[in-house]
Amino acid sequence: MSFDLPKLANLQHADVERFERDGFLIVESVLSAEHVEALRASFPRLFAGKFDTGVYPDEWYWREGMSLPDVTRHMANAWKADLMVARLALSADVGRAAATLTGWSGVRLGQDTLWWKAPKTKAVALHQDSSFMDFLDPPRTITCWVTLDDTHRDAGTLEYVAGSHRWPLTPIPEGFHAPDDHRALMKNAARLAGIADPKPVFIEVPAGSCVFHAGEIWHGSAPNAAADRMRRSIGIHMTPAEAQFSDRPGGYIYRRYQRTDDPSLDESYFPILWRGDGHRTPWIEGYCKTGKRSVRH
To answer: What digits encode the pLDDT tens for the residues 62-74?
Structure first.
């Protein structure tokens, strides 16, 4: 099943202006119902440890029988484990749209993140994605957040503070999962930025929609207070194509992919999704079909 996403090929100048003004852009109903159902089916398999490729994801939070039932389930770089997720996370259409909104010459995949907010699960603290990117130069990212369920305010949908991408960047937050006050860090950042009463914008959109957001915008989610609604989603986090490892400390998970005395990001682990000169990591198409990263025919 290929992921052709024509709605993302038609972004207009007004969309770019809205993204620059607010720090996020909603594009509704991008994925077909077939795509949505196929991606939903991947979630229980993945969190049960059943991987298409036999390769573990880089991060895996929440395991049946081991983790608390009221914690939001989270997994990162599931594209390495599941081919359906790979077909979305490695999409050229997503990459091209991200480059259009940022003005970057090209984008590469930093990581994907799966979020499974079951009924009555706890909050995720508001944060800035670029806070986690200090191990890269430039420490920049843009995210495409893809909804796999209709999202609702009472079911812990994502919330943004419009314009907060212009506030100063803060350090990596503590208490990311299940904080007592999921907006506390954002409120403190707003005070330091001279913003008296920051108002969150709640994203209520149909399943299969995309929301692009700047790495510097404050966002997160309240608890899922609903008794009968899931909130499953996938974040595709992209960096500029020319990004490299920095000399700064950090990146305790992804720094493992740095070669000795070589700051470049290896396309084996950080593939280029789209670049203006036509380059796209060669093994992507074959991998999405077979699970093998090879350019041999």
So the answer is: 888 888 888 889 9
Please report the beta strands in 131-199, taking only residues with DSSP state E, as ranges in sequence order.
136-137, 142-147, 158-161
SS3 62: coil
d(CA 154, CA 136): 36
Write the CB contacts of 115 (distance below 8 Å, at least 6 apart in sequence). 72, 73, 74, 124, 231, 232, 233, 234, 235
Q: Yes or no: say if 206 and 29 are a contact pair by the CB < 8 Å rule.
A: yes
Confidence band, pLDDT 50/70/90 cuts, at residue 297: very low
**Amino acid, single-letter form, for residue 258:** Q
- How many residues appear in the chain? 297
For residue 134, give every residue at least 6 positions away whose Cβ sits within 8 Å of its Cβ, in sequence order, or none.
172, 246, 248, 250, 251
For 120-160, the pLDDT digits (tens) are 988 889 999 999 899 999 999 999 999 999 999 999 999 99
Q: CB count, 10 Å around CB of 166?
A: 12
Q: Does domain 6-290 have CATH number 2.120.10.30?
A: no
